[in-house]
Amino acid sequence: MPLLDFQCNKCGIKFDELVYSSQMDKVRCPECQSRDIKRIYEGKCYFGMLGGLSDSGGCSGKSCSGCSGCGH
């Protein structure tokens, strides 16, 4: 389940949410409960930072340098 970044078009708050792509239409703003949201890309990279979960298809060797994310 990916951690995705969103911004509410109603109140402007940015937030992240653990959500399957099939459940994207159910995501609501945590501040105003609006469904008028858009997905944004903040350039974060969590692969390789999860210890034992690093073999889940993320950056090899716990390094994100190849994914143009955080540069970890």
Walk me through the structure.
- The two termini are 21 Å apart.
- 0% of the residues lie in helices and 21% in strands.
- The relative contact order is 0.20.
- It has a three-stranded antiparallel sheet with strand order 2-1-3, with no helix packed on it.
- It contains no helices and three strands.
- The protein has 72 residues and is mainly β.
- It has two domains: 3-41; 47-72, no CATH class.
- It is globular.
Q: pLDDT below 50 for ≥5 consecutive residues: which ranges?
A: 52-61
Quick one: overall form?
globular
Let me know the largest β-sheet: 3 strands, antiparallel
| Annotation field: number of helices | 0
Structure summarized in a few sentences:
With 72 residues, the protein is mainly beta. It has no helices and 3 strands.
